[in-house]
Amino acid sequence: MAPQTKLDTTWNSKDTQIYYAKKYRQVLSSAPACALAVVAGAPLENMKVRMQSCHFPNAFQALKYTYRTEGLRGFWAGTLNPLVSITVSRALGFSIYRKAKYTFDSWIETATGRSPLQHVNKPGTYPDLSTVTCFTGAGMVSGGVTAVALTPVELIKNATQTSVLMASRGKDTGLGAGGEKNVARVSSYMSMKRVIARQGVLGLWTGFRLHLLRDVIGSGIYFGIYETTKQSLNSYYGAERANSAGAVAVAGAICGVGAWVVTYPLDTMKTRAQNNLVGADHAPRPSSSTTKPTAALSAAFNAAAKAASRSSKWKGVEMIILRSSIQNMIQMSIFEQAKMFVDNLSFSDGSSTLPEVERHFGRDRKLYKNDQL
């Protein structure tokens, strides 16, 4: 490996640009992948949220009603404005997953004498208990941490997506004639203001416990299935590298489906709890300085419990299965290809690895001054 002194370290140099691209490749690779996946899956996500929020006999009726009352705009409602925050949150999730993965790998290697990360990147190997534990555990940690940031984002998104539907609830079953398009639509900013006015700032975390449970379980299953499927397909078909395009696409399509099938009832309860809070015309409000934030939060949870007890928890599951397959196939394919592109960038001295990092079978190790290469 070439010493760092051979590199051009001036601020505007190509070496410096490549250095920071490699150092932050997780974020640089995941952000555009997440953004494109969110935009591509938005229409199906909107249908899922509407079917969870109101009774529609089937997805086609929900689609017809949305187009009649909101037009094409309705299929991307609540998506474009919070797109940055959703992308940042998911990119953060990938970064946390990577750090947690390395931590679990270190623990397992200390206990068993073998690194799951090195095992999974060796051609011809198959998943075992150590790899499944490493990836599932890291996914659960990532889901738990990002749930704190994503709960307000999803609440505002859901409120914006269903604002027209919630305004007409009780007036139209979804099959009636309907009126003027986009009646009572609110923006993401107005949704946030409405929640804070009614429930205080903590109202933005309505449904947090359901969201946390959903994401801890779902992210664990998501990453566990993704890594396991990808490794199995690579080995079965004799792929020369760990991230072959076909294996990544198939694993991406499957992993989200598995996670959502298990956690979908939790997502439905969370969505209904949040819609009940935002859509109610007479939601409880903090009325004086003596009203404590915990009181607002308690009122929100009581509303959540009532909303969560109604109707089937599986309405719209077909939308999430279809959306998840398409969205995660796009997301993971772009993510892995972007990482590979950054990895292949070469410094001016011909090296392609960070000067302070040693890579062996897909696992990075930071080098210190007393390390010998």
From TrEMBL:
Q: Name one Pfam family in it.
A: Mito_carr
One Gene Ontology molecular-function label: transmembrane transporter activity
- Principal localization? mitochondrion
**What is the topology of this protein in the membrane according to its UniProt annotation?**
Multi-pass membrane protein
UniProtKB keywords: Membrane, Mitochondrion, Mitochondrion inner membrane, Repeat, Transmembrane, Transmembrane helix, Transport
As recorded in UniProt, coiled-coil segments are none
GO CC, one annotated term? mitochondrial inner membrane
PANTHER family given for it? Answer: CARRIER PROTEIN, PUTATIVE (AFU_ORTHOLOGUE AFUA_4G06390)-RELATED (PTHR45624:SF9), MITOCHONDRIAL BASIC AMINO ACIDS TRANSPORTER-RELATED (PTHR45624)
Entry similarity comment:
Belongs to the mitochondrial carrier (TC 2.A.29) family.
Spell out the protein name for this chain.
Answer: Uncharacterized protein
Provenance organism: Capronia epimyces CBS 606.96
